[in-house]
């Protein structure tokens, strides 16, 4: 905001602008201390990986301005996920709004402006915002922003302190750079589906994707870490930089121990259903009335587990006494354990395992998850006021910071909800804003 107590103007260079200049205090109340308070993020991303990154930055206090395309030519405009429903948020009369639950899950604490970046004036507005930003996050196809003069070299020339993060399917280099990237395809290409699901020979066997878009989500989180590292470097040196994030790179990295298994042995791991490649017993078992998870992580826990099952002799059997031996003889051991577990109800075993400090747990559906006393105690559901509804609840951030806690300042914005506010902060008057809206430059 021009003319705050500092008397500074938004017309200056990035270094001249107060850190809170693009934060509307009237509409965005903040606690006195947030970890990223004063960081300005220009969000040119949509769908999930990019918005997940920018939502995380926003939760930590950054002022995130989400740029969305205005309605045009019959297209409703906005982030694609606004229409990815049902389900949709219900209004105060119980009717569906145009706000899909998918969109609501990745866009809180942001301000939305509608700008047509295909238009010269829209491009000028993006440049104005980039001059005053600390971070730009975008997930356009490789080369798309170059056509508009909004690519990394162009914006870094305007603002050398800028951290410019690109999120794509395959990165800015390499033979696949021009391909569109989607989480589902990357889960397959990056090997995750080759190790997820039951073995081919078993009922229901075959490759299986993970139930949520983990390549997108992990890429968003890795992008967040990389941006924070780049900001620290910028603060130390004054130099911005480019962050090149790829879904495929992230998917390969998150293979973790299975990737290490292959690189160590030269043998590709296969699907093992709910069993662990390197630990036994570490899988789902069937009790008399349902399923439970057993997650024995060391030999001492295995001794306790055998005792509560009533088969202490198994822990003394040299075939099963160590984890390495249990992995080698899992085909003989697991049926013996399964027979014992099947004889009693699930809760019997869960109580016994908790008393013996043997790791494991129930398999909850989402209704059970959000009623779980630990989940409720940790405040993992947050109600938020919304312009269209009194019933918005969001899944909370898992980040618990003692001195700079996450704050839920803004509900996921309506398309273009903050256009006038943000442009006014840039110094543009109502007449200019009205003219651009009439021309279709903004929404």
TrEMBL record:
Keyword set, alphabetical order: Transferase
An annotated Gene Ontology molecular function: CoA-transferase activity
Skewed-composition ranges (Basic and acidic residues): 68-82
InterPro entries from the UniProt entry: CoA-transferase_III_domain (IPR050483), CoA-Trfase_fam_III (IPR003673), CoA-Trfase_III_dom3_sf (IPR044855), CoA-Trfase_III_dom_1_sf (IPR023606)
Keyword Protein biosynthesis: no
SUPFAM superfamilies: CoA-transferase family III (CaiB/BaiF)
Sequence ranges of Polar residues compositional bias: 1-11
Region spans: Disordered: 1-27, 68-91
Name the record gives this protein: CoA transferase
Biological source species: Roseateles chitinivorans
């Amino acid at each position: 905001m021009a003319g705050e107590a500092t008397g500074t103007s938004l017309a200056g260079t990035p270094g001249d602008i107060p850190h809170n200049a693009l934060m509307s205090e009237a509409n965005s109340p903040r606690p006195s201390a947030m970890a990223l308070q004063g960081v300005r993020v220009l969000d040119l991303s949509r769908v999930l990986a990019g918005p997940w990154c920018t939502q995380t930055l926003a939760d930590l206090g950054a002022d995130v301005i989400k740029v969305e395309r205005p309605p045009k030519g019959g297209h409703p405009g906005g982030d694609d996920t606004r229409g990815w429903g049902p389900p949709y948020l219900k209004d105060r009369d119980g009717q569906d709004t145009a706000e899909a639950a998918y969109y609501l899950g990745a866009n809180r604490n942001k301000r939305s402006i509608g700008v047509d970046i295909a238009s010269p004036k829209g491009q000028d507005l993006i440049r104005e915002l980039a001059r005053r930003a600390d971070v730009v996050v975008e997930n356009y196809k490789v080369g798309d922003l170059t056509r508009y003069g909004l690519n990394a070299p162009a914006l870094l020339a305007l603002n050398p302190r800028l951290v410019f993060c690109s999120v794509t399917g395959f990165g800015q280099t390499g033979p696949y750079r021009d391909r569109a990237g989607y989480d589902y395809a990357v889960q397959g290409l990056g090997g995750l589906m080759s190790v997820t699901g039951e073995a081919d020979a078993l009922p229901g066997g075959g490759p299986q994707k993970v139930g949520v878009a983990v390549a997108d989500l992990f890429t968003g989180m890795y992008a967040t870490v990389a941006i924070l590292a780049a900001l620290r470097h910028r603060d130390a040196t004054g130099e911005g930089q480019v962050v090149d994030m790829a879904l495929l790179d992230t998917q390969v990295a998150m293979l973790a121990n299975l990737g290490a298994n292959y690189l160590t042995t030269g043998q590709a791991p296969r699907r093992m259903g709910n069993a662990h490649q390197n630990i036994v017993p570490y899988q789902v078992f069937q009790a008399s009335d349902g399923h439970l998870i057993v997650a024995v992580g060391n030999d001492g826990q295995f001794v306790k587990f055998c005792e509560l099952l009533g088969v202490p002799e198994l822990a003394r059997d040299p075939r099963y006494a160590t984890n390495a031996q249990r992995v080698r003889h899992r085909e003989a051991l697991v049926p013996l354990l399964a027979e014992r577990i099947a004889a009693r109800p699930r809760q019997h075993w869960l109580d016994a395992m908790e008393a013996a400090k043997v790791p494991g747990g129930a398999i909850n559906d989402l209704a059970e998850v959000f009623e779980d006393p630990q989940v409720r105690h940790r405040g993992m559901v947050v109600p938020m006021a919304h312009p269209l509804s009194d019933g918005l609840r969001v899944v909370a951030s898992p980040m618990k910071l003692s001195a700079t806690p996450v704050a839920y300042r803004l509900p996921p914005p309506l398309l273009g909800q903050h256009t006038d506010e943000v442009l006014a902060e840039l110094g543009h008057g109502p007449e200019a804003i009205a003219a651009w809206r009439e021309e279709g430059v903004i929404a």
